[in-house]
Amino acid sequence: MGRGGCAARRSGCADCASRRPDRSRGGGAHRRHACRPPSGRAPGRHDHLEGSDLVGPSRPAGGRVAGGRARPTVITLGIESATIEVGVALAGPSGLLAALVARPGRRHVETLHPAIEAVCAAASITLAEVGAVCVDVGPGLFTGLRVGVAAAKAVSFGLGVPVVACTSLEVLAESARDHDGPVVPVVDMRRGEVAWALAGGEARIGAVADLVGALDAASSEPGWPSGSVLLVGDGARRHARALSEALAEHGEPVPVRVAGEELGAPDVRALCRLGLRRLAAGRTTDAVGVQPCYLRPPDARANWSSRPVAGAATQPCP
Q: Cis before residue 266, ω within 30 degrees of 0?
């Protein structure tokens, strides 16, 4: 950490600052200490999490460890930062251990790592006990994607554990799995564009009119599910008026409604459910293999040149 000491001690975490480094173990005592969750502590690095939804559910069934605490066989860390929310959760085959959801605005970088510490503390688990990482790889906000994927890579590389990659569209669809009818996840991509996926198909990007045209074409095909179409995600909510106008122009090919705010962003708990199923099926990658799904080059490069830029190619969604 250099001369300045550890980040936790510099930032004012009372418990971390009060512990002297254990030089015999190659690091400070803070490395074995998870900072307390936001409530009941002195001001410090977790101030970004004030007002967040921190949940620590009941103990799951599972094998016993020292001290008699029940543990699942594999603990999975879920990282969600693709859109406006930052979510972190710990889960196992027996269910959710703890979860935290925050809306930090543009402060994904400052929020994610304290959120991981807070969730570990709420579940009384150290990061070293994590056996897998599941992460939302997008599409979504460029900065949010980079932050989440970088954190997943770091945990995977540092602990030698596998990574499960899920797209934001898949997580949104999982969040609305109880809907009796087709679910179409829609993510706001800015610049008047949205990303969507129909009936579990590949991710696509375009204007709202393109989405409505795709709905029109898909609904006339054999095998299209019956029932009203539920649009979920921030793209559907932000462009609700444009969607309504485009549907009217198409003669409203299928009955469509936009979900409420509770389905406005990918839910980290849904991410963990999806991730655990894929983990059980062996659908994993590693720290090198997990990559963000941008669908288009970053905005900062989009107008520089019409020629391809090295490293700016879009990454197809898994």
A: no
Nearest to 59 by CA among 95, 100, 99: 95
Give the span between the Cα atoms of 51 and 53, in whole angstroms.
7
Please check whether residue 307 lies inside any domain of the structure.
no
Asked whether 196 and 170 are in contact (CB, 8 A), the reply is: no
Structural domain for 252, as ranges? 177-258
Q: Which amino acid is at 192?
A: G
Which of the two residues, 60 and 185, has the higher pLDDT score? 185
Q: What is the DSSP string of 273-307?
A: HHHHHHHHTT--B-TTT-----SS--HHHHTT-SS
Give ∠ CA 290-30-23 in degrees, rounded to 5.
Answer: 110
Q: What is the pLDDT of residue 318?
A: 67
Structural domain contains residue 68: yes
The arithmetic mean of pLDDT across residues 57-81, rounded, is 56
pTM confidence score: 0.74
Q: Is 64 exposed, middle or buried (0-12, 13-18, 19+ CB in 10 A)?
A: exposed
Helix axes 268-280, 168-175, angle to 10 degrees: 100
Backbone φ, ψ for residue 97 (5° rounding): -95, -45
d(CA 103, CA 112): 11
Which amino acid belongs to residue 202?
E
Which structure tokens are listed for 314? Answer: 């879009």
The dihedral of CA 104, 106, 107, 109: what is its sign? positive
83 and 148 co-located in one domain: yes
Dump the DSSP string for 50-102. TT-EEE--PPPP-EE-TTS-EE-SSEEEEEE-SSS-EEEEEEETTEEEEEEEE
* Pair (163, 147) in one structural domain: yes
| Residues 86, 147 within the same domain | yes
Report strand pairing: 194-196 vs 183-188: antiparallel
- Helix 208-219 and helix 240-249, axial crossing angle in degrees, nearest 10: 50
Q: What's the pLDDT tens digit per position in 261-289? A: 899 999 999 999 999 999 999 999 999 99
